[in-house]
Every structure is written in structure tokens, then in C-alpha cells.
Amino acid sequence: MLMGSLALSAHASPQEPGTPSAPPKQTAKQPAREAPALTLEKLDRYIQYRRESDAALLRVTDSAVQKSQEKDGATTLTINVQQLKEQGDAVRAKHGLAGEDFRPLDQMVRNISEARFKSESAAVKAAIQGLEAKAAGPEGPDRDMARSLIAFWKKDLKVDPMLTKEREEYGSATVDLVLQREKELKEIWLLKDAATARAFGAALNATP
After folding, report:
1. 18-29 pLDDT tens trace
2. Contacts for 182 with CB less than 8 Å, ≥ 6 apart
3. How far apart are alpha carbons 164 and 178 in whole angstroms?
């Protein structure tokens, strides 16, 4: 469970640690959900928020990883969640993103970013690599679980270059607008994903 939570947390909101719940499934006949009102100006403010918020989160996470390595057999990373929440609230207010539409905006941009860049996920690749020994081990629940997780993550890495699901969910115009900042969002996504991979590696190495 530790490996699963670490591998998936790269795409979770720093204000609410853990994996966000998946959006409800929709069929092609259903209209796209009403996406948050979005302009390039607002998206740029969101990107600045993410850069600052993620930088703070990475500092806290790297510090926690370092401390965990100083304790023999430590497998738990201790992070002050309340402090992170307060920092996130302050950064959102600074960039004018403290309104009620922040959560759907954040989830939308994260979903589109993950769908676009997940094939390059360092966190998932690290998780798969860490599970390979158990998957090749003796028959038993651990081997079965490891094989199931590897199969799930490899399947999840497949990318739809057209972002069909996201276009059905948010509308093509919104997706196209978000992708106008693809370079900036990719940089943010990959940096955070790499940090998750480091945390996963530290936890794995600390396991007795």
C-alpha cells in the first residue's frame, strides 16, 4: 500500500494529500461537464501558483525523505499537512485563486496534464521496478499483488494523444486552451513526478 500511495501521489493536490477521486465516467452521448471559466490569463496565474506551491511541497518532502533516511528501518515520511495547507492557501490568495472555482480548475488542469504526460511518469516506473522482485518471487499473496499492480500501472501509462476522454469531459475548446501552456505544465508535472519517485525510492530502500 505504501508503494501504491507514493506512486500515485505525484498528481495529488498539495492541499489534500492522497489520490484525488476519479471523475465520474461519462459516455460519448453525454455532454461535457461545465468546465471552470478559463482564460490564458487565469491559466498563467494558476501556473505561477503551482510553481510556488510545488516548490514549497518539494522542500518539505525532500526534508522528510532526508530525515527518514537518518532512522534505521524508517518507512514513514512525516509531513506537516496543516503547514502545507496554510502555505497553499496563502499562495492561492496571492495569485487570485482563492474562490470556489479553484478546486474544479485545479482538478481539470491536473487531469489534462496527467493524461498528456503520464507515459513519462518516473514515479510509476520506479514503482514497477520496485515491485519486479516480488513479482518474480515465490507463489503467494505478495507475488499476486505485485503482478496485479505492475499490470495496472503499465496499462495506465498508455496515452491517448487526442485526449478523447478529457475532451468529452471538459470540452475541446478548454482542453486546447490548457494545451497552449503545455511546455510549462509539462515542466511542473515532471518535476513533481520525479520528487514522488525519489520519495518512493527512499521508502523502498528503508524497508527492512
Report:
1. 333 344 444 444
2. 116
3. 14
CB 119 within 8 A of CB 157: yes
C-alpha dist (Å) from residue 72 to 6, 52, 67, 206, 207? 20, 33, 10, 7, 9
Contact 149, 3 (CB under 8 A): yes
Instruction: Give CA–CA dist 82/11, Å, rounded.
Output: 19
Show the CA angle centred on residue 39, arms to residues 30 and 165, nearest 5°.
30
Nearest to 150 by CA among 124, 121, 128, 133: 128
User: Residue 152 in contact with residue 80, Cβ under 8 Å?
Assistant: no
* pLDDT (mean) for 70-75: 53
pLDDT tens-digit series, residues 51-71:
999 888 878 766 766 666 555
46's grid cell: 494558476
**The CA-based dihedral angle spanning residues 83, 52, 158, 182, taken in that order and rounded to the nearest 10 degrees:** 160
C-alpha cell at 171: 470540452
- 145-200 pLDDT, tens per residue? 989 988 887 877 888 889 999 999 999 999 999 999 999 999 999 988 887 787 76
Angle, vertex CA 130, rays to CA 139 and CA 57, nearest 5? 140
**Sequential DSSP letters for 102-167:** HHHHHHHHHHHHHHHHGGG-HHHHHHHHHHHHHHTSSSSHHHHHHHHHHHHHHHHT---TT-HHHH
